[in-house]
Amino acid sequence: MFKITALPTEEVRALQAGQPDAYGAMPERATSTGKGNPCRHCLQNIPEGDEMLILAYRPFLETHPYAETGPIFLCAAQCERYEGEELPEILTTSPDYLIKGYGPDDRIVYGTGAITPTDQIATAVRDIFARPDVGYIHVRSARNNCYQARIDRV
């Protein structure tokens, strides 16, 4: 079993309040075009016309060669953190996603990365978690490599 883990609410509230992003810059404010603007906290597409934040995000506590940093979107207004058991909206809108496992040392576990069709994500996650050296999985955009969410064992 596994669960999809959205960004922590405390981190998101700080960014919504103006805390600098991973590069020390203020999050940019923009208007959502709807599809293609997924919030990494509620894991839904930010509705068209709503204000959103664009910022650099690094889903790792420390910098190291595998600590990728990239652009993400967040709802500018407070939203509820995703806590569901099904694949969230943002992981159903693309034909495929890049998924890859990481060890407890936050390093990529080689041989786990794959562009995975959306309807095969659950199977691929189970296969990756069958490896004892995998601690968690990241889901990224298969087109732009943007971080989407983390997957943890239950």
Describe this structure in words.
The protein is mainly β and 154 residues long. The protein folds into two domains: 2-75, first zn-finger domain of poly(adp-ribose) polymerase-1, CATH 3.30.1740; 89-153, no CATH class. It is 11% helix and 29% strand. The protein has helices spanning 9-16, 121-129; strands spanning 2-5, 28-31, 51-57, 70-75, 96-102, 114-117, 136-141, 147-153. The strands form two sheets. Strands 1-8-7-5-6 form a five-stranded antiparallel beta sheet, with helices on one face. Strands 2-3-4 form a three-stranded antiparallel beta sheet, with no helix packed on it. The longest helix has 9 residues, at 121-129. The chain is globular, with a radius of gyration of 15 Å. The mean pLDDT is 96. It holds the Pfam family DUF1203. This is DUF1203 domain-containing protein. InterPro entries: DUF1203 (IPR009593).
